[in-house]
Each structure stands twice: as C-alpha cells, then as structure tokens.
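FIELD: query
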Amino acid sequence: MQDKYSLAQCEHYGRRLATRLSQQFFGPQPAATLDGPALLKFTPIRQVNLLVLRQLLSRWQQEANALRSPYFDFEAAPVRTALGQFMNVLSRHIRLDRAALEPLLAQAVADTLALATDARAAFERLLLPPIGPDTTLDAADEPVPLATLRDYLRYFDQAKPFFEGFIGSLPTAGEPLGREALRQRFEAYLAAHGAELPALAPLVTEFNALLPLTVADLREPSPVKAVPVPPAAPQPVASPPPAPQPQAGPSQPAPAAPATEQPAASPAAPRDERPAPPAPTEAPLYAKLKATQPHTPHLADTLRGAAGGAHSLAERAAPKVVSLREAISINQRFSFINELFNGENMEYHAAIQHLDTLPDAGTACAYVQQELAARHDWSLKQEHVGKLLKLIERKFAGA
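FIELD: result
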C-alpha cells in the first residue's frame, strides 16, 4: 500500500523550521538583511534556497506586470528593452529582512517536502505558472509555452531528472498545451515513471539535522473513528416477594382470611395548641406544563430543526461526496483557489487533502472556520465558504 503524506504536515514543519532558522540568523542581528548570493547559501539544503528564489521570481514578475498603463505603449520595442534592463538590474538587488524572509522560507521548506511526498501538488505549484487572484477561468487555461516550463525548471534540484523527463515528453510542435492538458499528461507520466522519483528518507535526514523530523511525522494522521457504545440494558425493577400463604393440609380446610382488627377506642387526646403547618406551595406553571407534556421539545431544538430542514430538495437529493478532491469540479477548484486561497494552489491542495482525512463533519467544519478562515481572512467571502461547507456536509452525510 502506498504511503499517504499530508501537505498540511509539511506546511506545519515548514513554519516551525523557518522560525528556528530565522531566529538563529536574525536573533543576534535583528536589523540584518539578505541579498541573492546570501539566500543561495542560507540553508544547507540547496532545494530550499532555490525555492525561496523561485518565489521571488513570481513576485518579480508580478511587479513587472504591474508596470502597465492605458496611457503609454508598453509594447513598443524601446520600452520593452528598457523595462527588461530595469527588471534585470532590480533582480540583482534583492534585500530581505526577517519579516519578508520567514514566510518565504516556510513555504520553500513545505514545497521541498512536497517534491518528495506529493509530486502532483509539486507539479501544480512549482512547474505551472501561478494563477493570480484576478485570473479568469478562460485565462487560467491558456497555453503554457515550453520555454516557461523550462524556465521554472531552473529552480529544481531535487527530482530534477524526473521533471526534465516529463517536459521532454511534451510535443514540441504545434500549439502549446493548456494547464488542464498538462495535468492529464503529468498524471499519465507519473503513473509510468513514478518509481524514478527520489526516496524520501535521505531528505528527511537532512531536515532532521536542522529540526527533528521523521518520515512518520509527514504521514496522514489516521482518522479516529468513534466506537459506538451500546446502550445499557434496562435493569428489571425488583418487586417485593409475595407474602407466604399457609398451605392447607389434606384434612384441614384453608384458613379464612383474618378479620381486620378494630382499634380500641382511646380517650380523647388533649387539643394541640400549636399552629397548623403551612399549606404546600403550588408548583409553578412551567413545571405543570412540563409534567403534563414531557416530550415537548426545547425552543432551541425546534429552531435548529427548522433551520436544518430549510435545505432545498436539490440539496437533499445531492449524492454523497466520497472525496472532496474528486467532488470539486474544475470551475469550483479555480474559484476556490482564486477567492479563498488568493491564487495559492499548494495551500488549496493541502487544505482539501487535510479535510479528506478528518473523521467527521464537526471536526472538518471546525478546521474550516477556526483555522482556514482565520488564516486567509474569509470574513467577506461567505458565499464561497458556504459552498465548501455544503460539500463537507455531503461528504459526512449519514456518517
């Protein structure tokens, strides 16, 4: 059985390691900054350093794309030449302090672990161009030139031969393939060549030297299934034993029931001069109603039931979801990535994969509302959050 690893666990370890390494470097010198050459040597794991630069490349491209105006011709040859020279100069003047570096470092560690544990997620995040928050569905599936894929491949150190083989398997003639076609081809390539991916253990050993880590730490946690407790069998109420009756002998008639003894008349008791005890207080009205209608539901339960019954017929008739990853359509996936995860494919895949491992709807909804909503500021995105919660409700329906 193939091991299943958790992207959420990779991200958790990435944040912890980034905090430790940042503290070690910036603790004695809080005002220090790092340039490009220093970043390439910041950790002893080259792949982590390259992926920090890979994220800076994306930011660099976003900055370049932001230099657009409806009033000037940025496509003119002299402007493009000058702009290219300016961006090249800018790329050689990197300066990162701790606040800027630590989140980039945490993501680079998580991505490095993903390269060894989840090739699909690594392909989606590290080889395909990023999807911006304003990218439309049509633009998200635009053709991806081979030159772009090879450009991103420069930032691969671990598993580079495997991804080079995939790019080499793509057609070089004709129109470049779109993102969805590339995903399908990668799935087929992974099924045929997955054994060529490097082993995880050596990479874990390298990370363990920086912060304790084992292969087991990265595996999906086993879902804890609640063991149903059988209801206790009702105990029979013991009734008092009947009083023994004398048995009639063969020659004796059954004795007649004894006559009730009449108490002897007693002399008149002296009159009790103490005041009579107060009459018992009458039970409150709500107690009487509860006694006469013991099965009346509480108002909160009534309202909760009404809210639960307000789903439309289409929602109640929707088939149960087995896997959130499989149930989310392509359109929904782009919508969730753009609206809920700010265009971050890796964070989307990590969250959905973690939700698929949770044991019940309550735990899944708590993870969405307490962890994801707080981390990504979903306070103004109730429509998309509601769609995700509906899918979770269908997944655990009847569980």
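FIELD: remark
The two ends are 25 Å apart (CA to CA).
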